[in-house]
Batch of 4 targets.
Target 1
Amino acid sequence: MLTERERLILRTIIDDFVKTAHPIGSRKLAKNEQINLSAATIRNVMADLEEKELLEKTHTSSGRVPSEKGYRYYVDHFISPTIKDNNLSIITHILQDNIIELEQVVQLSAEMLSQLTNYTTIILGPDETDATLKQVQLLPLTSHTVVAILITSTGHVEHKSFTIPHEINVNDLEKTVNILNDRLVGLPIMNLTHALETEVYELMRKHIKDFELMFEYIKSVINYEESVKLYMDGQANLLMQPEFRDVDKIYHFYSFLEEEDEIINLLTGIQDGIQVRIGQENELEVVKDLSLITSTFHLSRDQHGTIALIGPTRMEYRKVISLLQSLSSELTNLFAKGQGS
């Protein structure tokens, strides 16, 4: 347990250090009107906090900086549930009238989050192998051009335009859409190809004249391979942080960002709610000098995505946690609306 004085000094030092990246000394704290303690008293309190391993003394000055243990105490005791962050309200305007392109929303979210924090944002989408088909559309673009659109239960949208034979008319397009939605909607994505090549093929062969070309294009849309999608932004943001002047450290971090499997392993199995891993709390060596903050957003009862921010341990935890809470809520609500439409 910390005394009220210790809590006040620790919180003030961390808030100041996050802003300035400079060690904090007792003389500077004594000038803070909110503290109202002598420099000598402050030095004693700082020594006690250092003994409790919440502060560290640098070699270059008499000031102190927070330790990883100090950041952990700060996160656990000084950050309460936050109010909705209005910086992300623009996401609510991304919905389209007919089709929700979740990927566009998520990519925009990653970009906004990295811009608002100056950290690296990674968003792990849901595993498409667990998804089911929600809807198929064939929309005429011109008299002889059609775009095939496939929408999954996770909000993933695949589309491809193609030219249809002159012999195929609007009625045949309508028949094709009806066959596809009747036979494929609700099926797991992994089972679509088999159903397409058996039931759907036979029905199209019987009811649609000159169907072969249309069938091949529809098949190409349905047979997409990506099961997990990663969205990243702000990869270079760490270069702006004063902690990262070590070329080897930067090289290893950038190499990590190029390894999709490593990132997926890092973010797979993340628990619901805000999770904060500081420095050595991270299992992966490349992020042991960093802080990783994650949150999940839900697309259905069994499907979710993960939002992650990676930055220095000298992170604006209060701001980041507020943004992640807000973004998780926004994405969950947006997808819930999309499923109801």
Note: The chain has eleven helices and ten strands.
Target 2
Amino acid sequence: KKGLTQMSIDDLMDWMDVHQYVEIVTDVKENNLAALQLILEKSEHNTDRFIPQVYSIKEYEKIQALGFKKIILTLYRTKAWNFQILRFAENHPELFAMTMRPERARQGGLGLELKQAGFFVYAHTINDQNEFEGIQKYGISGIYTDFLTNDEQTGLIHDLREQ
């Protein structure tokens, strides 16, 4: 795509050395465990700057066992019921965040229950400022977006953990 540069894992590590403030949220669609093992092998001093996404409750413990400290459980692939997600969250207070589609946050109150339990909750993919503002009442504190930025969108899109 115009303006984008494809990178190898080595290119990414070099780029991260220059951009010390950056953390990378992974989004590996296939062979997540193998990809994260490769990241560990290549990352050396940047390991703590990777935040893996996992796609199921079972996958979480495998990734945690690799030594990653910040892990996001993304729910779009899981068939787990809301009560199972809540029980998992209660048993894993170290969980960095959860992310879900806006529909799941709205239906059944999962987003609010997670937020009330102290978890940071993201929604994906939100590309409209009004939609982001509207979904916050369902427990959503941050979003994944294709193009909204702090500067362009009145500073609402940021990690609310700092507040």
Note: The longest helix spans residues 32-43.
Target 3
Amino acid sequence: MPHEETHRIPLTEDEYIRFVQFRTPSEKLEKIQRQFIFQCNTGLRFCDLNELTRKNIEDDCIVVRQNKTQKIVKVPLTQTAKMILEQLPDMPDHRIFKKISGQKYNDYLAVIAVGAGIDKKVTSHIARYTFATIAMANEIPMDIVGKLLGHQSVETTRIYAKMSTETLKKEMEKVSGVF
């Protein structure tokens, strides 16, 4: 069966900022917003995020055995991710985020996206794409991004390598005086 190109579109840096700055109308949506922001800062799959516990945090890194691949991944925490962790209360089951179904999570994300003025489908997997795209746009090499995502091959990471118009313009500036 031929491979069909995926049409998932990550958030741009501007859309990510709008998502972060949006004031949600309820505490429930604020929790979902925080969870998505954490996901954008770590690149974790939703299933791994849903199972994440305080025991998975070691030396300012998330260390998890990925549910999908069974591969152990170590992701250093960004300042934003650390701040979110500090703000969250301890849960009785030691989970970092309250367990939620993927469908419900995506439904809430759609509501937040509309409120933030984002005109694209925002789902849990878009957080992973956003992480990869923003990381590569900020010159983190593709092989490092792949390692953080837990990919076996850089070819898998290429699927996530959505070049933003801003990145293309920045790269073209390098040859601006040549032509």
Note: The mean pLDDT is 91.
Target 4
Amino acid sequence: RLPPQLDGLKIVQLTDLHASRLLGSQWQRAVVDKTNALNPDLILITGDLVDGTPENRAADVAPLRDLKARLGVLAIPGNHEYYSDFVAWNAAFERLGLRVLRNEHVVIESAGGTLVVAGTTDRNAERFGLPLPDIKQALAGAPKDVPVVLMAHQPKGADVNAAAKVDLQLSGHTHGGQITGLHWIVQAANEGFVSGLYDVGAMQLYVSNGTGLWNGFPVRIGRPSEITQFTLRAAAQSGKG
């Protein structure tokens, strides 16, 4: 459903940055520089930005302030934000210039074309008495017949999002399984999704291997990290929306 005016729009996805003593400010700065060098129209960060409290990780996340995209930088929480003082991190992210979507959406206008970008909370919110992911709430009031890109940290529940007429879902969380062979176990625990592009009904789902790693298990073998660039194409140009 992408309008021809948005053909060629560039989105860069970052996910699972896991700012920590292992992946500190120098590493985060390198991610920011590489992302900005892609000259994206829009940057979407699909959760697990941090490991630790805002007080302990303030210097490590500071480089994120310099992320630049013509149409903005949007983010959602992952499970690790809930483990690390979700409420305080929301305020910290806003100070960094990151718009955090929590079961809500924004309308992106560019060159006369319109795109909805929605974001949901994480499934672990229930453990902390906070709102669970709610795609209906996230899309409430969104314009009709406009393509929808959804940020959802975990790929679980993709069928529900497809039924809500999301066009493209961007997720992380799995780290691609981290180790070839182990990824089969991670895939089974995530409704068959672990890495790469999937068709879920009429929706496309992309599961990133993650840009960083949790410092509790900092190992990758055969499942490389990524900064992912998407170039959106209208159906008339590509044959597939």
Note: The chain has a mean pLDDT of 95.
